[in-house]
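Section 3.1: Structural characterization of target chains.
Under the original work plan, the team committed to producing a structural model for every single-chain target entering the pipeline before any wet-lab resources were allocated. The record below documents one such target. The sequence was received from the expression subgroup and is listed exactly as submitted; it comprises 177 residues.
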Amino acid sequence: MKEEFTISVFSENQVGLLNRITIIFTRRHINIESLTVSESAIKGIYKFTIVVNTTRIMIKKVVKHIEKLVEVLKAFYHTKDEIFYQEIALYKVSTNVLTTNKEFERLVRTHNARIIEVTNDYTIIEKTGHKNETQDLLEKLEQFGVLQFVRSGRVAITKMKKEILTKYLKKLEMVNS
């Protein structure tokens, strides 16, 4: 049975690595729902956060295959209950809506969004949350005429006390000493 998994891949910053990682999913006909890459808490180490829907058997195979890539230090997979995650969404609407419609401001406040820029022509709203929350706000803002919309990929951290890569590296260090 398919379920949602978030994969964390820790690696060096190497040209072409993203392509090699995505090919692993393509060959297995697994669609990547979200992909975010950023620096990790460890200097010089980057973190890929990849969201997919697949089976537990397939996710184990994919993670094992990703770890075979030379630049990859370690890869982990997590279910939704093992991580804390957020996305960010930006919405651009006409400023005219802000100045003429009281319902618009109430909608922004009740969704815990915030107005981050107002010009004569447009207003930009920011909302952080899960995909369903940012999607819900989009659907409600459509009545006011959304000029642009963009949503980031997932950013996630584990609910474990220690960073999983740090824990792994310390374990590796003890084995090698």
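Helices lie at 17-27, 56-67, 95-100, 102-110, 131-141, 164-176.
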